[in-house]
Design goal:
The protein is mainly α. Helices cover about 70% and strands about 5% of the residues. It has 18 helices and 4 strands. Strands 2-1-3-4 form a 4-stranded antiparallel sheet, covered by helices on one side. A hairpin with a 2-residue loop joins strand 3 (about 390-395) and strand 4 (about 395-400). One of its GO terms (cellular component) is plasma membrane.
Length: about 475
């Protein structure tokens, strides 16, 4: 399980909150055992007192039952509050970690990832990791502690019953989750494969709906989407059957522990080693202790899906980053030498043996029909893509070997579709050169910041003439003068 080690280290960052949540879960389980056991003892003792006419103090056990009932409800509430808060914070930390890793990937590498795959990793794969603590680690630790406390509690009345009951529940708590994990791993891996495919197919359907309608391919593509959904549904249905079998096995183990407690307790009752109310207490406490191991099979069954999600995230985060380190030359001449490019191995070439040279200070306009490769050519010049053949040079140096920060400080690129953030005009312009100097200073700078931070400028960035803002942001480089107003 080496793929889970980085995420276990993330858990250690919030270990105190997670330990508190596990302790509250243990208190909840202990309160449940005490409530059911004391209730059985009290009902049996009350019935025997009514039949024999003996005196019985009903106030003390009634207060104990109220204490366990309220304590169980309160501890359950705070356990859910603490654990879910911790898990949500962990998921936020993991998403921040993932975004930090994505932010340092070269754009050429990042562009190879499909948007649906990124969406799946950011959402489904990250969410799958909440199973690690919320359903595996925390409940498993609480189950071990609960069985230990149950053994001590039952041993105070009947050591033989304590040993038999805890051995039965411990065997069920180990064997059933282990079998569920082994049998459920293929289902988790299949679900991990099918869900990204389904999301990719759904995304492609929505994005290309106009083209699908134009070429009368909606039904054919819909059949493909239905096939992906059917595969995912079948995998989840098979996993659901395994979950039902695991829950049934644990439930059977709980009733087996109840039967063991009754059989051994009846023998002790006949020997007058325990009373009738204590016999019922032993049996119901054994049944309540089974609650500690009940969620374990499903949690360990889904551990395969959690491991698969962790592997995909690590593949993305630990992908080797091939970036250059050379400094840019003084010459700004940009040229292509016999550059050829195709989108994948079996596609037709978009560009073939292109030669182009743009010297410093020269303006060049590239025209062509839609789909002829103008955007691809611009992306090659900007270093966003690499040609399969030929070279892209800046001042005689290949763009691919330049340090990425140096490359994007020297080459400004305005794509056909570029985003503006719902922020001030000044902050949107600063993205063009985050480390650049202020365009002006003193009162003039403060006046420009006030003007570009106004609600009017925020509205411009949302819905106004945003094209000039994008052009200004792309043109803002060290050595170019610009104004924020």
């Amino acid at each position: 399980m080496k793929e889970l080690r980085p995420f276990l280290r993330q858990l250690l960052r919030r270990r105190y909150q997670l330990l508190l949540g596990t302790l509250l879960l243990l208190v909840t389980l202990a309160m449940g055992i005490g409530l059911l056991g004391l209730s059985g003892w009290f009902i049996t003792a009350t019935a025997l007192a009514g039949l024999t006419g003996a005196a019985l103090d009903i106030f003390t056990p009634s207060a104990g039952i109220r204490f366990f009932a309220l304590g169980r409800a309160i501890s359950r509430y705070f356990e859910r509050l603490v654990n879910h808060d911790a898990v949500l914070r962990l998921l936020a930390d993991l998403r921040g970690w993932l975004f930090r890793r994505l932010s340092v990937l070269p754009l050429a590498e990042l562009g190879r990832l499909r948007s649906s795959d990124l969406l799946n990793r950011i959402t489904a794969d990250i969410d799958a990791l909440d199973n690690l603590y919320l359903r595996v680690i925390g409940p498993s630790l609480a189950a071990v502690a609960t069985l230990a406390l149950t053994a001590l509690f039952l041993a105070a009345f009947a050591p033989s019953v304590a040993i038999a009951v805890c051995a039965t529940l411990a065997a069920a708590g180990i064997l059933v989750p282990a079998a569920a994990m082994r049998l459920g791993r293929p289902f988790g891996e299949r679900e991990g494969r099918y869900l990204p495919k389904l999301r990719a197919a759904a995304t492609e359907t929505v994005d290309g709906l106009a083209e699908l309608r134009a070429y009368a391919a909606v039904d054919r593509h819909g059949a493909k989407l239905a096939a992906e959904e059917s595969a995912l549904t079948n995998a989840r249905r098979a996993a659901g059957r395994l979950t039902a079998v695991g829950e049934a096995a644990v439930g059977l183990a709980g009733h087996l522990a109840l039967l063991v407690a009754l059989v051994l307790g009846i023998g002790l009752y006949q020997q007058e080693a325990v009373s009738g109310p204590v016999l019922v207490l032993l049996a119901l406490a054994a049944l309540a202790a089974a609650e500690a191991v009940a969620p374990l099979p499903q949690a360990w069954q889904h551990l395969g899906r959690t491991r698969a999600a962790a592997s995909r995230l690590l593949e993305l985060g630990d992908e080797p980053i091939a970036v250059g380190s050379r400094q840019a030359p003084a010459d700004n001449t940009l040229c292509l030498q016999q550059a050829s490019f195709r989108h994948h191995r079996y596609a037709e070439p978009v560009l073939s043996a292109i030669d182009l040279e743009v010297t410093a200070g020269e303006a060049a306009i590239i025209t062509g029909a839609s789909g002829s490769g103008k955007s691809t050519l611009a992306e090659l010049l900007a270093g966003l893509r690499r040609p399969q053949q030929g070279r892209v040079l800046l001042g005689g140096v290949e763009v691919s070997v330049l340090a990425e920060a140096e490359r994007y400080a020297r080459i400004g690129y305005l794509a056909q579709y570029s985003e503006l953030f719902a922020d001030t005009l000044a902050d949107n312009l600063r993205l063009g050169a985050p480390g650049g100097r202020r365009p002006c200073s003193g009162r003039r700078w403060r006046w420009s910041i006030w003007r570009t931070s106004s609600p009017l400028c925020r509205e411009v960035c949302r819905s106004g003439p945003a094209r000039p803002v994008r052009v200004s942001r792309a043109a803002r480089r060290d050595g170019l003068r610009w104004r924020a107003y």
